[in-house]
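Bench log. Compound arrived from synthesis this morning; before running ITC I wanted a structural hypothesis for how 1,3-dihydroxyacetonephosphate sits in the protein. Inputs:
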Amino acid sequence: MTILTKKKIIIANWKLNGNLILIKNLLEKISLIPGYILKSIDLILLPPHVYLLEVKRNLFKKDEIYIGAQNIDKHFFGAYTGETSVLMLQDIGVKYVLIGHSERKKYHLESEKSISEKFKIVKSCNLIPILCIGETKKEKQLGQTEIICKKQIDEIFNLLEHKDETFNNSIIAYEPIWSIGTGQIPELKEINEIISFIKNYIKKKIFPKKVKNFFVIYGGSVNSNNVQRIFKKGGSDGLLVGAASLSHKDFSKIIYNSYYTNKKENI
Ligand code: 13P
């Protein structure tokens, strides 16, 4: 499975939220967005696992909107009560898997090693990993943002055998932990600098081969008002949206505003 996009990627991470009514309302609202706007983005919805099939069944444009999972287990099958495997996700047509979200590290004590193993499993099944990386407030204050991102990327490189292909067909979401759910976002200059750092670091690592289909997006307190700011002078390949993706009004506005900002930036 490959991402063949030159478009902006917009990902909705619903976290532990949503129900059948929300799914119906949200998809109805998205269906009102003109086709030329939807075609200009890769839209990926990450509902809780229990709703994946419901979202998939109700997608009105199955080839323009994708579904993804918020997590997977490290095992393919077996006695692991309560878990979901990558094979099951593949079975129902899931294309993307979010990995290493800071909330999983905080509340489920996920280690960097376990995150790398999950990344490897997702790749081995030809699904597309969306790897979250980012620093805490303290690390930012100490000026360690680049060091932390580099360390989190290195953990992945260290575990994969075919290092030059590690980040082919992958997305990295730069999500500063201090920004998630707080309404605070980094300065535009900071976002563009770190995104460019991540891209260059990965390119340097796999020299002389070229990384293919690799994208870096921004996440953390994205809403319809700050989208223009994030996309301005466009370092980011897209957005990972949390709370604002649950409101059909806000999420539609994010899509519209992304479209118009990127159109302006590309003139
Ligand atoms: P918020 O957009 O609610 O800050 O969440 C960001 C996030 O964690 C997306 O994965």
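What the model suggests: Residues 13, 101, 175, 180-181, 219-222, 240-244 surround 1,3-dihydroxyacetonephosphate (CB under 6 Å). The chain has a mean pLDDT of 92.
ITC booked for Thursday regardless.
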